[in-house]
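Dear Dr. H.,

I hope your travels went smoothly. While you were away I took the liberty of generating a structure for the chain from your last submission, since the lab meeting agenda had it listed for discussion. I wanted you to have the full record in hand beforehand rather than looking at slides cold. The sequence, exactly as received, is reproduced here:
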Amino acid sequence: MAALLAYVGDILTRKCRFPNINAIGQPLSEQQLERFCFQHVPVVGALSYSAFSTNILAYKAFDELFTSRHLVVANCLLLNSHLGIGLYLFNTRTIRAVNTRWRVTWSVYGSAMFNFGSILLWATVKEIIPENAVLRVGFGVLSSVFFLMVGKKYLDHVDANLKLAKSKPKATEQK
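The corresponding predicted structure, in token form, is as follows:
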């Protein structure tokens, strides 16, 4: 994930060109790549995050749904969640203000803390909630949506304060 974020960061800061990956032979424009990485991937990551909560809280139902491939599906959902949240963080105004190495570091760190913190909470709550698949899935989806909304609101607040701090003139001390 760190390598992907660094590569995307290099492309967007024009340190390297992205390869021609369009089947027709036309290169992707920077706007298309930026839209894909910072709009579509975070949405898929958020959906994967919510779906992954089902794996943690209602493991038996998840296992029955995907039978022999449940671990592959669960790991793909977790990977998508990491990528989506990491790319969302990578593109926030606050993190864009630093160099690419720190952008990648903070994005990977934030994504890991968010995802693994949620997993820890869900695993703890799983022991408290009655063993009812509908109740557990409902709690998982609702809590994941709540965490995503609170996280977005927090980042919007931090970005707004950064904008305010940059717009205010620095007061000179008078003695």
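Two observations you may find useful: The mean pLDDT is 85. The CA atoms of residues 98 and 152 lie 20 Å apart.

With kind regards,
E. W.
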